[in-house]
Write a structure and sequence with these properties.
The protein has about 120 residues and is of the alpha+beta class. It has one domain: Winged helix-like DNA-binding domain superfamily/Winged helix DNA-binding domain (Arc Repressor Mutant, subunit A, Orthogonal Bundle). Strands 1-2 form a two-stranded antiparallel ribbon. Strand 1 and strand 2 form a beta hairpin. Helix 4 crosses helix 5.
């Protein structure tokens, strides 16, 4: 496992992968979040590659990207032209598929992976 973690941290050219690449891989279902924690003032995110990508729909992915930036679900619904119930349902499905427990955890993981700095 340590070899796989090292391989993930270092790309073929020797450069570490971009945080946003990890966020994109998570949203595309290529990675599954295993754990995340803070230690010595640094945030660590542990994920594993999926042999078969998890199917996250375009709607679920879009809702996650908006909610991950800290926007309230009602605002997301208005911006996307969806009902608040549809946003809530899509978010709940995506959170379950990503292995998270709640929207707040989603926001924290997105921040740890740098997704909120670029707006998703």
């Amino acid at each position: 496992m340590a070899a796989r973690m090292t391989a993930w941290r270092t790309a073929a050219d020797g450069a570490p992968p971009c945080e946003l690449d990890a966020w994109s891989a998570l949203l595309e279902g290529r990675l599954t979040l295993v754990d995340w924690f803070d230690e010595d003032g640094r945030r660590f995110v542990v994920a594993r590659r999926n042999a078969t990508p998890i199917r996250i729909s375009v709607v679920e992915r879009t809702v996650v990207q908006w909610v991950a930036t800290g926007r309230p679900q009602k605002v997301v619904a208005f911006e996307l032209g969806m009902s608040p119930a549809a946003v809530s349902d899509a978010l709940a499905r995506a959170i379950h598929k990503l292995g998270l427990s709640c929207a707040e955890e989603l926001t924290r993981v997105a921040a740890a992976l740098g997704a909120t700095r670029s707006g998703g």
